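Cont'd.
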Amino acid sequence: MNPNLLLAIALLPLLGAIIAGLFGKVVGRAGAHTVTILGVAVSCALALDVLYGLVWGGMSSYNAPVYTWLVSDGIQFQVGFLVDKLTALMMVVVTFVSLCVHIYTIGYMADDPGYQRFFSYISLFTFSMLMLVMSNNFMQLFFGWEAVGLVSYLLIGFWYTRPTAVFANFKAFIVNRVGDFGFVLGIAGIVYYTGSLNYTDAFAAAPTIATQLLPMTTHTSVEALTLICICLFVGAMGKSAQVPLHVWLPDSMEGPTPISALIHAATMVTAGIFMVARMSPLFEYSETALSFVLVIGATTAFFMGLLGVVANDIKRVVAYSTLSQLGYMTVALGVSAYSGAIFHLMTHAFFKALLFLAAGSVIIGMHHEQDMRKMGGLGKYMPWTAVTSWIGSLALIGTPFFAGFYSKDTIIEAVGESHRWGSGYAYFCVLGGVFITALYTFRMLFMTFHGKERFHETLAAHDHGHGHGHSHDHDDHGHGGGVPHESPWVVRGPLVALAIPSVVIGAMTFKSLLHGGFFGNAIFVLPGNDVVARLGEELHQPMWLDFALKGFTGPAFWLSLAGVVTAWVFFLWRTSWADAAARVLAPLKALLENKFFFDWFNENVVCLLARLLGQGLWRGGDQLLIDGAVVNGSAATVGWFGGVLRYLQSGYLYTYAFWTIIGLAVLLGWFLVRHV
Amino acid sequence: MQFGLLSVLIWLPIAAGILVLLLGERNIRAGRWVALVAALATFAISILAYTGFRTGTADFQFVERMAWIPSLHATYYLGLDGITLPLVLLTTFMTIPVVIAAWTVIEQRPAQYYAAFLVMEGLMIGVFSAMDSLLFYFFWEAMLIPMFLIIGIWGGPRRVYATIKFFLYTFLGSVLMLAALIYMYVQAGDYSIAAFQRLPLTLMEQRWIFLAFLLAFAVKVPMWPVHTWLPDAHVEAPTGGSVILAAIMLKMGGYGFLRFSLPITPDASHELVWLVVGMSLIAVVYIGFVAMVQADMKKLIAYSSIAHMGFVTLGSFMIYSIVANTGSLKGAVLGVDGAMVQMISHGLVSGALFLCVGVLYDRLHSREISTYGGVVNVMPKFAALMVFFCMANAGLPGTSGFVGEFMVIIAAFKASFWYSFFAALTLILGAAYTLWMVKRVVFGPVANAKVASLTDMNGRESLVLGVLAVAVLLLGLYPAPLLNIMEASVHHLVTQAVHSKLPL
């Protein structure tokens, strides 16, 4: 593989970002989107070429440094690429979704004054994400990891005059840093045991590290590999928003919708999933760490899905759905079904980006109204958006033959197959989650595209208030008459481009990804843990058709059907029943609307304690104790002493004479006492 | 021995400072240019030192030695090694933005202001290049005078309290160091640092000498709990004073530990490593929390400096814990390398942050966070750079702030999981206090009419911050050249530091 080609894949988006960011005024709006789209498009084409070469072209994987960042103490800190099929798959997903989002942004951000800045950021993101997935060592992984976090921070706070956005981006960064805190400790542990930052060295040493104990106190110690894996996974929990570090993701919806699709659904949040899959040679040797992963993932999958049922903001519903789906992927990692996790990561990237972009299209149509209670019946006015949303939703709930079905059913069956500690709980969570997923997804579909039209008031008010101020505001959107209109082609195009893989990608790749040894050495599973292989043996033939037909007989299908019917009953057929149910289940509703009180706890306990501690240490420690008692205290003592001395230095001759006499007397007295 | 490169580096800025002073306030237009040319020339000459520096050896280079006070066997003895060259480069580099930043801002006695900074530059280079401990002490103390004047004359309303606190704190520490130096001179018959490093000392002697050094250097760094002079000094100092204070003067403490404490008193350092490591970790965590609740931007950055310098002392002293824990030196060099990189990076980043605060202060004459809000709306260029430097301060990879912290955290794991654990807390705390300030100052809607009236940076300000941003980015993306310079000297230092002076 040509290293310059790989460099080009990563650097072209960076080049676009620099041009659009630093020379945005010079190149103008059209220049900014042309140059960034060109960069990402070429990068995507090259990534496809790399994947093609690896899968069909007989190319072998690439693993080599690009340059040495620094050398210290014999440890090489390098920037380098590891490109195998796992990486190539991620590169294609990242660049393809990014390309769709770039094009979509032309329409979505058409009126925004920060147009060039936005394109610069999303291209910079693409670069960072590529550096993350293409890395062959922990240092660069961490670089990409934090760089995507930075861009996420900048993009959540893109509309920086909104206090909510500024709060959300700060929160996102800090919560991610809590994860990174664990991550960096995990990396330090790796270096401790291997003296190297390279994946290859770490993976080779995994069986040895697994036998080591790391002392914690003089009497206790923990299994070294378990500690390292859990630390690394804490990083994944931050980035991939797993309970309890999930709190930043719903708030991140303050950012513009294209980035919710790209960063907070399709790519960045899946970095944690990718990382654990990449680290499978380490995780495989620690049952405890995998059980930890499993339980956290299952909890996220089920309980975060529940929150989607009560949310009314269309983007937040999709965000909770993302949390829940990330939970599914994490569960897959936890039962050693790494290929299943990556499979779901890929299908999810397509259908969830689609759902977000469709939600964005609705938001454009509704003139930036996001409350589903003010929508309804939009399907008639926005047919493209409605149809693509249906496709995305069917994929999301795991309807047989749609992409999401193959990956999600694989995960559920893999959990059923596993005997790992926690898998019973996880099986309950992922099956229950299927019902919940169908319920919130179709609640969203019905409330948005079907039923009574509730938007007239909002849109009329909006049109009325529009005449003055921003006259050119909605040229591209086309509106008037108080009804929403379908979005322009730059918005519809990406919807279609994502809808196609949302249908077919599962069936196309099912066999090779799961049962065809696609990943080769990239993913490592101990023979005893290989649930995916066992699933393959149970199928007559590991073909997509067999699997889909079998799907109709499984519990997941019926649970999801039940969810759809429930949604239909409560949110389309008898909407008054939903209110009645809400009254009956008031305490549950309150619990869900308060998001299980995670935010409340963080704001009122964690942040408060941190501030109190800071104030206490500052006022009590620095000001009172150190400055008050010691520094100014000693100054005061010196001052007091000086005062006494000054009293003696009165300047009067008789005082000096008096003290001279006393002094002589004392000296004489001492002399006498000594010699008597 | 003829007048060498290092002498030029020391005396050129001092001579220029005197020239500016002689030109006087009336010829300040010429005086400014003299100052700028001198700062640029000094930097250019220091680049010659860099290009002429032979890596791969721990030997001192550009050595000059001549008699100074023959009756005391004190010599004018200068030299550079891999540890001091980066610090000298930092000094010559950081003086340039200070000179440019003051261009039109200092209205009161500008000639004296420039003179003070130029003289101080020469003295600081002297501190880093002195190989004779009495000469070192001379520069070390002499440097206090211009800084004292800078805070005392161009400082804020509580400048008298701040200067006296600053002076007494640092002076108190140094006096004990002088006593230790004299004690060793009596033993060795020579003031050269190398002689002290070779001097055999009993454990008891080493303990006392170590503690005397500790007080002198800990105050300078500053380490908890002798840090409380720093926030006061920074708050009262003019922008340039804060920049030099944070960027360079604090580094003298870190340098002192490396040049004096570790090689001269290796056994006491070993014995008392718990003390220094404890103080360092407290600095990282305790000060992190304190920084969070500051309402004054300069105080916040000052506290953040203390926390960041905690990594320097941690990285330097961990050597002994690493050897004790793993039985090998592997990782010790990584820690000291990390400490060195952290010093250079902190010099750039904290200097830049103080300049950022200066940009705001020159406009609204307030350092209070609550005065600002939504600055990005009216000063987009400034906001971009300020966010960049804050990210560097929070240790974002790709900036220089990441390099040293990452190296020290990784090395700390070799000493103890818990060292690493507490050090890594800076990822959370550093981000929290820095970005909380960014949130309140830079982002949000325009907070009030005063903020609405702000104008974005002028060309001079953009140039200064832009150049620093490039430096921070370069060091973050390609730190290898810096490590290359240090490598041999740090190896040599670590060997010295673990070589016991006690009879077996």
